[in-house]
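Minutes, methods subgroup
Present: GH (chair), OT, SY

1. OT presented the first of two proteins processed in the latest run. Sequence and structure tokens recorded below as shown on screen.
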Amino acid sequence: MTVEAVSAGAILFRDTRGHREYLLLKSRPGDWEFPKGGVEGDEELQQTAIREVQEEAGIEDFRLIDGFRKDYDYVFEANGTTIHKTVHLFIAHSFEASAELSKEHRDLQWRDYEQALNTITQDGPREIFEDAHEYLDELQNQNEEYV
């Protein structure tokens, strides 16, 4: 039997001296990922993403960017149960310069695009990250603010 699970999170970025930097978190198993976690109760996906950024990165001053949501899925085993997880990722703009490491993670780093692309360990999130970066570039090229 396969159990379905749903998570949501955000590709979080900040502007540093005119350059975009993205927050990556190192999970306990060792994967570099974005803040994300399971939907609780009757939360909407956006509410889950907001809560996870606050809990896993300690960032309160940020905003989700309109018009972007992508998902990926994977299957894993836990305690003899097969779990099919779908993860929905949004983009969030942080107005805070730093983040705080949560107990769920071993490390955190702000990385520029190329560094982040080479650090993300799973294909699904890496592909969505590429799309998110392009989406932000398009907004910037259209002289639209992402704030």
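2. SY then presented the second protein from the same run.
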Amino acid sequence: MPAEIRLSLIVGLIALAGVLGAIWRFKTGRAKAIDRGEIIDLALLGATKDGSLVKKFGKRVTFLQFSSETCSTCKQTARLFRELEHTADDVLHIEVDITNRLDLAKKFHVLQTPTTLVLDHNGRVTSRIGGAPKQSTIDQQLGSFVI
């Protein structure tokens, strides 16, 4: 194969990788609205917070974050949600490590971590955020819930 064709193939693959990376970066961290989302069963999650089982949802909104042990952005995302939780009484953050809970990963179609489900006060899924959420996405999600 001539050198010019090999060079063209390499440049083409690099360009394709760049375009795909830009598309992925644009889509990650944004919320996708869910119509008629399911109601989350807290007993099924078995999530704990401060050593106790979580038994109720936030008064306004609950951010259900699925994380894994090897996820580097999960810690940053959890910190962001914890700070938000401390400044707003009606917001709850629940973090579930799915490293050993593949049943939950399958049930909620978690293909990347962090994945965050946004729940209303009844525990119904209203939207889904794949990847580390952007601050504007969180603000937008909070603004969609009126007390």
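Chair's summary of item 2: The longest helix spans residues 3-27.
Next meeting: continue with the remaining queue.
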